[in-house]
Request: fold
Amino acid sequence: MTETSTENKPGLFPNVTSRISFNRNELSGAFGDIGTDLPLIIGMVAACGLDPAGSFLLFGLMQMMTGVLYGIPMPVQPLKAMAVLMISQKLSGGLLYGAGLSIGITMALLTLTGALDFVVRIIPKSVVRGIQFGLGLSLASLAVKTYVVAGGVQGYIIAGISFLLTVVFIGNKKYPPAIFVVLLGIIYACFFTVDFGVLAAGTGLVLPSFNIPKTPDIVNGFLVLAIPQLALSISNSVIATKRTVDDLFPEKALTVRKIGWTYTAMNLINPFFSGIPTCHGAGGIAGHYSFGGRTGGSVIIYGALFAVIGLFFSKGFSEFVKFFPMPVLGIILLFESLSLMSFLSDVAQSRKCLFVSLVVGIMAFALPYGYAIGLVSGLLLDHFVNKEKVLVHY
Reply:
């Protein structure tokens, strides 16, 4: 099926086909955010002893849910600040599930009271672009310094080939790049890294374990994990995501409240089925879009992959994920970051706005709790350097 086959074509469900398509471009776009998601999920499962079936299955189901609800490649991502703290400190799964439930409740209150809309309305465009730029820098640094170098000499070679394939085919609707890049990674893995005996031994149907978060985990999870996450969630998961959707899909007229409610719903569901806390993210949209995703079909395909891993390969997930070599994930992540940073051109015509954006971006990238510090500093800086504010219009 080609992309044009589902556009402007009458049928029984014309609106559905314009919102959800399954074609080679959606397949390519499906892998646009895998460089961010997969390593974080693997890291948390391995470091903290999480239930692999619940972690992968719920993550996949949330992707599929947002694909249906939004009709665009609206991503679902692990909560990054929580993930980093969990991996680095090897905290318990119970604390993570409690934190996920607490942040879901918090986002529900912010959305219900209208506080989320108020916060988003007062954030200038220059600050939003700075947050996007800072996130892009962070992803690019992770891609180059961690992922690309992971395979040694062979890793550099496969990363170089992946980079060239992406440069040649990016934007090509007939031959979208991620299909070639992912296929290259799978071929490489089949010959050099995957042990098919181990993979076969770990194959079998596994259902996620049911879990009821305990009150101490909810309270401590909020204090230890949710509070550091909130600034990043509001800046990236809500503000930057809303702005990115407006840039790429202006016809959708996406509301902040809808983002808040789906964020809430995911984190009120995930903890009870041993799923990791999740959010939306500007980088994910940019990644899916860069590699060809235009409808909810791309994240539905992507979610189905994680659901299959959770249901059938969770016993041997560490072997299955070798089909996606780190250097290949690094190149996908690199182009996701470049797409996100390119939005800075929107404020380039104003030297004052560009200055604010660059300061916010560098703070977000370089400082501990940089997104919170950059957000507050950007608001103050914009107030002083811009007499005529350039606000994000929602």
In short: Residues 1-14, 389-394 have pLDDT under 50 and may be disordered.
